[in-house]
Write a structure and sequence with these properties.
Layout (H helix, E strand, L loop, with lengths): L1 E2 L5 H11 L15 E6 L2 E7 L8 E6 L2 E8 L18 E8 L10 E5 L2 E7 L14 H9 L1
Antiparallel strand pairs: 1-6, 2-3, 3-8, 4-5, 5-6, 7-8
């Protein structure tokens, strides 16, 4: 399984700090969606941290062995007349793509969302699982011919 990364992410973050820019409107810096990925038995498990994102604001799509996770964090409702003092929480639409190898079964992907954590389970394809191969020999072929 390959994952798309942004090699210039840290450079962008430093440039924003130096110029006094904010990350409002985008969540691509410094890390759009922190994640962990591991294999557990016959499946890959990918876990994304999406705090403050409601389940209905998350989209999962698979096309040509590419899994795309999109999420939108909306601004919190602030009462009229309230003046924001600090706004560090990133807002907006962000996405992450995972390139799935041919050994994974993209048709049977399952996802669950609980307490701001999205868990995606991707089964290993049946044809990619290890299997025993029987060995035939001359003696078994000879027995079939004689019979």
């Amino acid at each position: 399984m390959l994952m798309r990364t942004d090699p210039f992410r840290e450079f962008d973050r430093l440039a924003q700090l130096m110029t006094g820019g904010t990350s409002a409107g985008t969540w691509s810096k410094p890390n759009p969606m922190p994640m962990d990925a591991y294999r557990s038995g016959d499946e890959f498990v990918v876990v994304f941290d999406l705090p403050g994102v409601p389940a209905e604001a998350i989209d999962l799509d698979v096309e040509r062995n590419v899994l795309t996770v999109k999420a939108e964090r909306r601004p919190a409702a602030v009462a009229e007349g309230v003046e924001m003092q600090v706004a560090e929480r990133p807002l907006g639409v962000f996405s992450r793509q995972l390139f799935l190898g041919d050994t994974l079964d993209a048709d049977r992907i399952e996802a669950a969302y609980d307490n701001g954590v999205l868990t995606v389970r991707i089964p290993v394809a049946a044809q990619a699982k290890p299997r025993k191969i029987s060995i035939g020999g001359a003696s078994s072929e000879q027995q079939q011919i004689d019979a």
